[in-house]
Amino acid sequence: MFHQIWAALLYFYGILLNSIYQCPEHSQLTTLGVDGKEFPEPHLGRWYFIAGAAPTKEELATFDPVDNIVFNMAAGSAPMQLQLHATIRMKNGLCVPRKWIYHLTEGSTDLRTEGRPDMKTKLYSSSCPGGIMLKETGQGYQRFLLYNRSPHPPEKCVEEFQSLTSCLDSKAFLLTPRNQGFDGTRRM
């Protein structure tokens, strides 16, 4: 009898804790963007990669040698297409340019990467001013990425991102050092 009462108390305590410590919701962006402008217009332009999170370190390994990344998102040459140009500054000082083409999914903000049929990208809002969060999934990985219009967003933005992704079972976290200037010079 005592064991049944104890088990019931533990069960209800677990329900209570779960209801108190639920993950905050992050809302997926809709086809209408910022200021009533239609997606993807508000998301075009320059973005800085700030941080990443994933269930394992291996899913973030591609970012380990990176000091900073600057992205420029532009409308593609065809409808329902976005062109992404990146300048990746490695920790060793090398600069690596990259290009991707994203295909927009009709009626949503889901993106498909050309040449990578297994990769899916979802865009999410961020409580951080000038911020956006991406969830990338592919064959064998899932990761969250935080981008911002500023190369140095408020620290609370990174803390909120880390807290949210931790709650979503991401145990690995990576913050880009951003020690080198975006033109290759060292920051002081």
UniProtKB/TrEMBL annotation:
Residues 1-17 form the signal peptide. Keywords: Disulfide bond, HDL, Lipid transport, Secreted, Signal, Transport. It is found in: Secreted. Its main location: secreted. It holds the Pfam family ApoM. PANTHER family: APOLIPOPROTEIN M (PTHR32028:SF1). Interacts with LRP2; LRP2 mediates APOM renal uptake and subsequent lysosomal degradation. Probably involved in lipid transport. Can bind sphingosine-1-phosphate, myristic acid, palmitic acid and stearic acid, retinol, all-trans-retinoic acid and 9-cis-retinoic acid. Belongs to the calycin superfamily. Lipocalin family. Highly divergent. This is Apolipoprotein M. It comes from Galeopterus variegatus. The gene is APOM.
